[in-house]
Amino acid sequence: ATPTSIMVGTGRAAEMGVLFRKGDALQQLQEIKLVALDKTGTLTKGQPSLTTFTCAPGFTRETVLPLVAAAETQSEHPIAQALVAAAGPDLAQASNVEAIPGYGLRADVGGLALLVGADRLMQREGIEIGALAETGAELAKRGETPLYAAIDGKIAAVIAVSDPIKQGTRAAIQAFHQQGLKVAMITGDNAATAAVIAADLGIDAVKAECLPGQKVEVLEQLKSEHGAVGFVGDGINDAPALATAEVGIAIGTGTDVAIEAADVVLMSGDLRGVVNALTVSRATMRNIR
Ligand code: ADP
Ligand code: MG
To answer: For the stretch 155-188, what's the b/e string if a residue is b when 16 or more beta carbons lie within 10 angstroms of its beta carbon?
Structure first.
């Protein structure tokens, strides 16, 4: 590629709100065979809201939700914001709040030992979910994320949060397919939930229940199966995958850590920016050959 054509392509992309931080990203982008995307905050808005709160016998939403929210005020996860917003003001003070990345959190609230998180957190802590597992499975089938709360070692509630699909996501996935690319989703979310959302969006491959450190492994696997890959993400834990992909693409509304690790930055959160980037990349390389 000539420096002039790269400059022209980079300029055209910038006009469309796509910043190429490195010249070779413009060349590498048209070589990718697959686009892998983080789910929360990339395919979805990253602003979940609480949809369902079902308690085990002996517990009520009025007593459990304020305890959960008290602990979640100390977490920065989007799920935490949904739970805090649903609980309202005047929460108790939680102590010993411990985030368990990829699982949830543990805290002491009002003299009670609280656990909130995915089903695997309950399994890890030896808590029997019992009949609420069926409710959780139903919620996951609707594409919602089931979480569980346990108090003093006993299952207390299943809580669902739902995160809407972003404007532009559907159209972007259709365009990737039209451009002959495969599309994959990588997420820490529940496998059943992720599968429903992926099927709805027409995504070809789903890698769910990834622990934060596993996104890179999954990406390496996709690379060996498909060839050059692009990865699109927004979060702190997406940075290693952004660096591993042939082309790392960060959402400009995402975290600074993700932006720093990326080759390409989208000024808006709309995934059609990735489609524009691909189009410019292909046009630039065509002119050169
Ligand atoms: P993702 O970014 O895909 O949501 P995470 O590794 O951050 O992946 O989270 C994986 C899962 O761990 C979530 O879907 C949720 O079930 C659980 N989890 C993580 N943090 C919290 C939290 N603060 N409160 C409740 N559950 C959580
Ligand atoms: Mg994300």
So the answer is: bbbbbbbbbeebebbbebbebbeeeebbbbbbbb
The answer on 130 and 181 residing in a single domain is no
pLDDT means per 10 residues, the chain with 289 residues, are 88 95 90 97 97 98 98 95 95 96 96 98 98 98 98 98 98 98 98 98 98 94 97 94 97 92 96 96 80
User: What CATH code is carried by the domain that includes residue 18?
Assistant: 3.40.50.1000
Q: Among this protein's residues, is 38 annotated catalytic?
A: yes
Cβ–Cβ under 8 Å, residues 157 and 164:
no
CA of 275 to the centre of ligand 1 (A): 29
Domain that residue 31 falls in: 3-45+165-288
Provide the pLDDT for residue 66: 97
Residue-wise pLDDT tens digits, 242-256: 999 999 999 998 899
Closest atom of ligand 1 to CA, residue 116: 25
Q: Which atom of ligand 1 is nearest to the CA of 209?
A: 10
ipTM above 0.95, yes or no: yes
Indicate the residue among 139, 162, 185 that finishes a domain: 162
Q: How many domains does the chain have?
A: 2
Chain centre to alpha carbon of residue 223? 20
Mutation pick for ligand 1 pocket among 73, 103, 237 (CB with most ligand atoms within 8 Å):
103
Examine the domain organization and report whether 147 and 241 are in the same domain: no
Residue 50 · residue 159 · CB < 8 Å = yes
